[in-house]
UniProtKB/TrEMBL annotation:
<keyword id="KW-0963">Cytoplasm</keyword>
<feature type="domain" description="Aminotransferase class V">
    <location>
        <begin position="5"/>
        <end position="348"/>
    </location>
</feature>
<dbReference type="Pfam" id="PF00266">
    <property type="entry name" value="Aminotran_5"/>
</dbReference>
<dbReference type="GO" id="GO:0005737">
    <property type="term" value="C:cytoplasm"/>
</dbReference>
<dbReference type="InterPro" id="IPR015424">
    <property type="entry name" value="PyrdxlP-dep_Trfase"/>
</dbReference>
<dbReference type="InterPro" id="IPR000192">
    <property type="entry name" value="Aminotrans_V_dom"/>
</dbReference>
<comment type="pathway">
    <text>Cofactor biosynthesis; pyridoxine 5'-phosphate biosynthesis; pyridoxine 5'-phosphate from D-erythrose 4-phosphate: step 3/5.</text>
</comment>
<comment type="pathway">
    <text>Amino-acid biosynthesis; L-serine biosynthesis; L-serine from 3-phospho-D-glycerate: step 2/3.</text>
</comment>
<keyword id="KW-0032">Aminotransferase</keyword>
<keyword id="KW-0718">Serine biosynthesis</keyword>
<comment type="function">
    <text>Catalyzes the reversible conversion of 3-phosphohydroxypyruvate to phosphoserine and of 3-hydroxy-2-oxo-4-phosphonooxybutanoate to phosphohydroxythreonine.</text>
</comment>
<feature type="modified residue" description="N6-(pyridoxal phosphate)lysine">
    <location>
        <position position="196"/>
    </location>
</feature>
<dbReference type="GO" id="GO:0030170">
    <property type="term" value="F:pyridoxal phosphate binding"/>
</dbReference>
<dbReference type="GO" id="GO:0008615">
    <property type="term" value="P:pyridoxine biosynthetic process"/>
</dbReference>
<keyword id="KW-0028">Amino-acid biosynthesis</keyword>
<feature type="binding site">
    <location>
        <begin position="76"/>
        <end position="77"/>
    </location>
    <ligand>
        <name>pyridoxal 5'-phosphate</name>
    </ligand>
</feature>
<dbReference type="InterPro" id="IPR022278">
    <property type="entry name" value="Pser_aminoTfrase"/>
</dbReference>
Amino acid sequence: MSRAFNFCAGPATLPEAVLKQAQSEMLDWRGTGMSVMEMSHRSDEFVAIADKAEKDLRELAGISDDYAVLFMQGGASSQFSTIPLNLLGDKASADYVNTGVWSKKAIAEAKRYGSVNVVASSEDSGFSTIPDQAAWNTSADAAYLHYTPNETIGGLEYDFIPESGGVPLVADMSSTMLSRPLDVSRFGLIYAGAQKNIGPSGLVVVIIRKDLLGKARKETPTMMNYQVIAENGSMYNTPATYSWYLAGLVFEWLKEQGGVQAMAEINARKARKLYDFIDGNDFYANPIDPRFRSWMNVPFTLADDALNGDFLKGADARGLLNLQGHRSVGGMRASIYNAMPEAGVDALIGYMAEFAKERG
Ligand code: PMP
């Protein structure tokens, strides 16, 4: 068996050690005679698995008791509506920053529930930069300020946490969660779809400051009501048990790697190598303002789009998979999340150099 280097943006590669552990526990989890997939979510065994995952995540991300950690379903996209339903309260509007495809989706969904004030947008630049916060048109009376720290498709990442004054700051951390240390206390709510740095798809982790619970509109579906989910330990209904277990294994793996500080050093190095190579080679280009280049998603184009097919074919043949860029932007994209080993980035750079030499 040989594992490829999978550069998919999500579902993304998982640590091999985690998959092996899941494999070894698949038929019989620690003498219970059953797979975690088959356990009652109310069983002592599963409750212990769930509690351990939450505890490890709290430790890794530095989440204090002022915050509830929720393991919800429906992916990050369901949060685009869950957030306004829960947080708009009696406020007239919410503030949103538009930096790309995922911000836009969040904005479009929030507009169904209230008035949205787009405080800044980098659309004019083709979403190649982050608008300077000094020029944001924020409102001190907004229900919350929403932004997307890492735009997975554009490969655009904030290098700062916005100042939101007394307004709760809400962040879609789907593709940057746990990639580096984070001051959680700056946020009202953080959410992250699991399928990049956390585990299997479907699961979405929500970290919410407890004073923001209990503000949901009356018509909010029960399954989307943060207070209900928090009061029931994310087990109001049957949670995504296997995904939760796998996320727990990923958290344990992260702790063994030295936590998010150690990951940050490796991630910074992986990203720097790849961008340095792209910048140093006339055949490849990355369109993003260097200050705001994503550590996790690296889009790049070839000097001639007509060569894209050959590039991908050669990459596949070398076990470098899923490098095609998102259909909305074209070109290539290498997603290099926590679980992508540095050797994968080295192999990609080696192939890119070879291809440019032969075909450039
Ligand atoms: N936000 C961001 C930043 C994403 O990258 C994604 C998925 N690529 C989503 C939201 C949507 O996630 P999901 O498919 O889990 O709904």
